[in-house]
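chain below, 444 aa
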Amino acid sequence: MATYNKGTGNAGTLRQIITYTRNISARTVTFHVEFWILCSDGQTNVGSIGWTGTTAGTAVSGSVSLPAGFGSKKVAEYDLAPRSVQSNGFLSTANSRFIFAIPSTGTSGLGGPTSFTVDVDVPKIEYPAPSTPALPSGSSPSAGRATFSWSKPSGTVTGYRVWYWIAGVWTGVSQTGTSITLTGDPGDTISVQVAAYNDDNQSAMSGKRSVVTKAGAPSAPGRPSVSSSSAGAWAASWSAPSNTGGKPITGYNGRWRVNGGSWQTFSTTGRTAADSGNPPGATVEVQIQAENADAVSAWSSTGSVVMKAAAPSAPAKPTLASPLPGAWEASWSAPSSTGGKTLTGYIGRYRVDSGAWTTFTTSGTTAHASGPPGSQLDVQIAAKNADATGPWSATATITLKAAAYVGKGGSYPSAVGVYVGKSGAYPAAAGVYVGKSGSFVPAK
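prediction:
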């Protein structure tokens, strides 16, 4: 509350007593006004005079009787309706001006000015500080970006002061809206605090909201290294991507296919994968992609390997012949299964009269050798490819042709390479008959 008590003229012929009260929350001013006429000496009867005035923009008027020697006289008194201040916090000139006027009388003691204006200097009514904004909400709509929003607090608000933190640096901006989108690097932590303000005061800062922005896609892993240690099986390993996209790698997705067929998929948190039970000797291709919490990389380049073959099946039992004494020949057919890769040859073995085995190799399906004439020969054959050797075939057995037995009597030793003839080169004997007397019998 404040009071103005001002007058003019000799001893203050006209006087206004103005009292006002400010309502800060309502931003209004209420006035109480009194108009007075004062006289400093005795005088004759002035009589009734009219007067006019203006009270905070409202015209008023009336008349008053001034008898001789009245001294002082309250002419009028008003309680005005509240006046609202302007947006700048001050009353307009019209709402703060008061005028009191009377006609000139020339009477002793009333010879001063006949009009008196008072402009009341009402201090500015400031806007109270708005209430503190609630904790902003926040989210990350895309890699490296964070969006924050908040609600308008109670009180008069003309804008907001936003403080945000990116990469260890606080920055302040002013704005009128209730949201802001900020950009950092993928995976950055971005924090925001907000204060509301008006033309006169600012609220306290809100709580701090922090958002970890979405990561970008990692770079693709290196091309997987693929190997095969057994028939129809493969194993792959790969290196981590050079760029995680801004957040740790959480795992890997893989896909593989056999001989260009349909892709099959797998997931793993490590950097290895394996599978078995595939067609031996087939080609397997493998691709890998990395993922973080928000995004997945492109597929790596393709790693591949031809898986190891299985062992071929056994050839059929070989066919044996002995065209000459001690000589033998063997032939066989290819196995029904190559094990998944082209046959590279055969391993054979033979033995004489159930003795130790002797081995040989050949790229074809025939073999020949010699042994003691008349002996028993066993032969087995196994097929092989680039990775494995199959089982032995069934055993083929033959008795090699014998040479002639010669002698005088008793038991005959085994003749080896007996040749007969008359002269020149001797052909091998065939069907030679020998004897001492009587009927001749075939030579053994």
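Confidence is low (pLDDT under 50) at residues 407-437, 439-444. The helical segments are 93-96.
thats it, cya
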